[in-house]
């Protein structure tokens, strides 16, 4: 049961097509797991429909309909929808970036059993998968900008709440916390931030330039 | 395919003036008349036209959709910063996608305008921002072949009401919403308090999703 959802601001910015790619990835992945947010997103999309319907027109070039019909004639059959990756740890939007499931992730060790893999998105924000061994703490960190953390496997808790599969934590500059993975399965998260994380302990900060945390 | 353009069932659609305004610069002027002059078709008529494209590769139905939506998509893209030439090319692409993906349109979850908006928005991100657009996983292998007609009708009604509510917003507020969707505001500038009644449409779509999940399981 998902308890921590996306904010209206994020859903609307995603619907309007204005989020950096890394944030869009988190939104698309959460919506893949959450019908509540899927319905809310569809509500925001319908505003887009109303805006399009009520917008002024710009005349199409002469012969544009015929040109479009020719394009349709030329195009290959559109591929069937990929079957949903139901029950898999990585929902399809993440699989598309990883090029497969968890086994295909190219992890890099950060020390203490914590691993991460940066996903290739545009540079306005960065997205990465985090692997935190059961019971381990993510290094104590504060935030510049906004950070979204979506749990895909296991769970973590911080000072304020517990986050399980599908839950998304939205943290801004005011949040300084120490997430700890629950005992049991390792915790795998998809995280996106529009600024580098700032670590409070000396050593992780020195490590930061190398690992692009 | 082209011959069937002749037997267009809605001659009034072609009689409408092809354009109302021009250029990306003139965004707001004449908005009121524009809203009033929009169209005689109801959202349900558009749904029927998409079904004819899907089931019969009906070029006349597609032509009616094209005449209505292509100029709007073009204007939408120009307001998002595309040149007239790029917007023309993309609008043709968007309408070609409408034909090719007609089988994926689910009228119990979106109006035709909303569906076309999402295609146009993704094209804008692709072409203007040169970014990938991560999309949520689809629920199954496409919409149910025959969604409940009452669901479809209710959702299309809700969409029409939302359109009317948008038109009635105070100018400043409406313009803010429009600018967000045209792509003129950054994500940090977008505030989701639109003053638009989204509760009904959200609950309706939630029910449609539950039904779809049920039919898939």
In short:
The complex is a heterodimer of chains A (213) and B (217). Chain A has 213 residues and is α+β, with helices and mostly antiparallel strands. In chain A, 32% of the residues lie in helices and 21% in strands.
Structure, explained:
The complex is a heterodimer of chains A (213) and B (217). Chain A has 213 residues and is α+β, with helices and mostly antiparallel strands. Chain A has helices at 8-15, 21-33, 35-54, 64-74, 92-98, 202-211; strands at residues 108-111, 114-119, 126-132, 141-142, 147-153, 156-157, 162-163, 168-171, 180-181, 187-193, 198-199. Helix content of chain A is 32%, strand content 21%. In chain A, helix 1 packs across helix 3 (35-54) and helix 2 (21-33) packs across helix 3 (35-54). The longest helix of chain A is centred in the first third of the chain and has 20 residues, at 35-54. The model of chain B is unreliable at 1-38 (pLDDT under 50). By secondary structure, chain B is mainly α. Chain B is globular. Helices cover 60% and strands 0% of the residues of chain B. Classes of the chains: A alpha+beta (213), B mainly alpha (217). The interface between A and B is large, with 71 and 100 residues.
Q: Which short descriptors sum up this protein?
A:
heterodimer, A: 213 residues, alpha+beta, Jelly Rolls, 6-stranded antiparallel beta sheet, 3-stranded antiparallel beta sheet, 6 helices, 32% helix, B: 217 residues, mainly alpha
